[in-house]
Amino acid sequence: MESQRARQIVSSPDEIEVSYNGVSVWIDKIHDDDRTATVHLRQAMEERSEVAISELKEH
Fold this sequence. Notes:
InterPro entries: SASP_SspH (IPR012610). Pfam families: SspH. The structure is a single chain. This protein is an alpha+beta fold. It has one domain (3-58): Roll (SH3 type barrels). The protein has one helix and five strands. It is globular, with a radius of gyration of 10 Å. The N and C termini lie close together (11 Å).
C-alpha cells in the first residue's frame, strides 16, 4: 500500500478492511516518515505494532 492511500483510510468515515501478513488490522497512525504506521489487530485492541506501510494490503 502507498502512504497516501493509508492516510485516506485512516481519515475515512467508512470501515475499510486492511491486513498485515494476512491478519486484519486497524491503522492507528501514519508516522511522519510516510513509510511506517502503527496498527493493532482487530480482535486485540491493546497490542500495537509499528509496521511498514508497504506491507499493508487493502481488501
